[in-house]
Amino acid sequence: MIAGGVAAGMSAASRALRQNPEADVVVFERGEYISYGACGLPYVLGGDVDSFGDLIARTPAQMRARGIGVRLRHEVTGVDARARTITVVDHHSGRSTHEPYDKLLIATGVSAIRPDWAKTDLGGVHVLRDIPDGQAIEATISGGAKRAVIVGGGYIGLELAETLHCRGLSVVVVEKGPEVAGRMLDGEYQVRVRAELESNGVEIRCGTTVEGLTGKGDCVTGVQTDHGLIRADMVIVAVGVRPNVELARAAGARIGKTGAVAVNTRQETGVDGVYSAGDNTESTHRVTRRKVHIPLGLTANRMGRVAGVNMAGGDATFPGVVGSSIFKTFALGAARTGLTQTEADALGLNAASVDVSSTDHAGYYSTAKPIYVRLTAERGTGRLLGAQLVCQNHESVKRVDVVAALLHGRGKVQDLFETDLSYAPPFSGVWDVLLVAADRLSREIGRKQE
Amino acid sequence: MIAGGVAAGMSAASRALRQNPEADVVVFERGEYISYGACGLPYVLGGDVDSFGDLIARTPAQMRARGIGVRLRHEVTGVDARARTITVVDHHSGRSTHEPYDKLLIATGVSAIRPDWAKTDLGGVHVLRDIPDGQAIEATISGGAKRAVIVGGGYIGLELAETLHCRGLSVVVVEKGPEVAGRMLDGEYQVRVRAELESNGVEIRCGTTVEGLTGKGDCVTGVQTDHGLIRADMVIVAVGVRPNVELARAAGARIGKTGAVAVNTRQETGVDGVYSAGDNTESTHRVTRRKVHIPLGLTANRMGRVAGVNMAGGDATFPGVVGSSIFKTFALGAARTGLTQTEADALGLNAASVDVSSTDHAGYYSTAKPIYVRLTAERGTGRLLGAQLVCQNHESVKRVDVVAALLHGRGKVQDLFETDLSYAPPFSGVWDVLLVAADRLSREIGRKQE
């Protein structure tokens, strides 16, 4: 039995059945859609994806044809782990039933946080977590919205800023922290992200706290902040997510300090027969060895696979994460992996960083753009800790994955410097910016000639 | 004293001076230019780089201002390693002198191979190794050339095929082997490269051997092959390069089985005080531990740095290569690192490969293109051996560097599969094609659950 049918849940279902073709796999999904790429939602609104339907990797009919039971609008609301039964509410009928299980996966994901001021019936106020949210935003845009306020300058807010701007709306991003992308990048790199948005006509108001909404009739008309009123006929609330841990807690599973469900590397909660995977679940950071809650698509899919294999009698382990993430807004790509300097400092690590600017392609090549890299390592050991990249050829920041690969194996700065990266002028400089950064960082931390 | 002033030579000069600011560093360059990016030559002809001058990283005046002596059109023609003197011919005056040295770097690079049939005075017949070659090709194009034959289907030939086609010439590539890109990729991937060229209107004739040239007056008019005559008013000979080892041999240095100069990891030839670096020099392949001669820009620069540090009293070592290379022709990017299946077989390794096709971005994202990956590993150990990628978004094949980073550390397929790659729809699929390939290859070689 699988509670939750998006990334982790459906990955687990597929894997469980591959591991044991005789397994009786049933997925309960409280929403109307399964197996969709939530990360693609902004791109449907922006037109880079034709329709919400394109985000759906597999339909319930396809899953059923493969032998996986799918119950849409069925929510698992309770667990009796001793009796091995779950309580399932059918949102069609409102009826509630008890179902036995042998193994249970809790893949309940996260919910968008709605502060008190956002708990409103006013039209035009949205979050963006699932397909119905996206459809509601599309309806507001199509209904003639002209002024959008996005509350929250994280990556979803910034992706949406581009989307809505390109759809012709004026866009204001309101962020209570001192900068946008504050949880992802160090300060200098946050500034580059903000500059890209501002140069494209998006207004950014940092250090600004939302206090309420104004409305006329049943429509939102503005956002009241501690720095005044901002008129708006559309408000997107993108202030973060919280893991849906109620079901896990009901099952007796431990909730970690991160606020997400604690599991071992097999995605076991410690409650016999109960697994947890996906955005609602903690993972281990391979660089710090600490528990973290970094809900992202690949992590969720990977956890789901591991859980599915193990639930069906196999033996798989989740390798942990190194904190890789990436996003695009307008032409700009921003990526990070490992730790930022700020994060390393907060953990008490003896970390050093270098900042390097170069070009993403050979400097003389027509499409070359500046690329900015911060590389961070531990003094003394020379161990790589992390990297941050920003470039206006957005795809060029994907080279962050080279650092991710080295972090995975606890590589050193010297390993990065010595890596035989591919080179031709349309792809990079002869000394790729990562190599330049590694060279400088080696000298900075004094481990060059070890 | 440094013989050769392009990639390795100038890297060595800069590094030597940084290592020891008191060092007396003199570079002899037989040509007219130093410190230029030879890999950019096709892109000047194609217009992606404005002028040949843009390829020059540093002029002689700039180098002299930094305290590095530069003697253009001065060729080192002899060495007396016991007396520590070199013979230098000044091509301006034709005069020859002897100069003493303390440390000598031989960075004489490679020469384009000219088969007997290409040793001609006919106008319109070119190789492309240096800036004067590029200027001569430009003159032929500007002079009204209409039909180009490129002899040789390696990456330089294929880069030039795009260039000349875009300049309005009809282009025929003649390759004596069974396919283009034959030394770089396995067969299926060679075919994809050929298809890209053919679909853009370049004619490819494989299995065709050139027997001679035809001319009228002092201009070339055609290429005689074993499959008939091909009319041409321009012929580019791109059949490969050979290392310039004469000077090293004269110094008493050993020439390796690869045909290039043998050195240790400090770039020392074994002859006291004599170093060798760059395209004329062997390196060690980190995957096979064998000596190889893979002349490429990054390798040359890296070797030069190592030599420069050591010549000036420091201690640096060359880490070896993993055989990474990459090129673009038309929209297509092709990349490889490590070994192809063909190469692994030839070495007697127990290798397995999987082929995976996916999309470079999320499948539903507007700019997504098919991407084809072959991943190769050793059965039994699960050690990664290599990867090949082809995609019509050329930059998407740069992710080959993730595999290069893992090869550097002798990583396993499972390490690649477990790597926390960055994901957002404009950059990759949630399961990047490299992860999909690693997953399939793990199963193929039966090391999945180790």
UniProtKB/TrEMBL annotation, chains A, B:
From the UniProt annotation, give the residues forming the signal peptide: none
Kindly list the cofactors needed: FAD
Say yes or no: keyword Oxidoreductase present: yes
Domain named Pyridine nucleotide-disulphide oxidoreductase dimerisation is located at 330-430
This protein's UniProt keywords: FAD, Flavoprotein, Oxidoreductase, Redox-active center
Spell out the InterPro entries in the cross-references: FAD-bd_OxRdtase, FAD/NAD-bd_sf, FAD/NAD-binding_dom, FAD/NAD-linked_Rdtase_dimer_sf, Pyr_nucl-diS_OxRdtase_dimer
Q: Where is the FAD/NAD(P)-binding domain?
A: 2-285
Question: What GO molecular function terms would the record report?
Answer: oxidoreductase activity
**Protein family according to the UniProt entry:** Belongs to the class-III pyridine nucleotide-disulfide oxidoreductase family.
Question: What is the official name of this protein in its record?
Answer: Pyridine nucleotide-disulfide oxidoreductase
Which species is this record about? Deinococcus marmoris
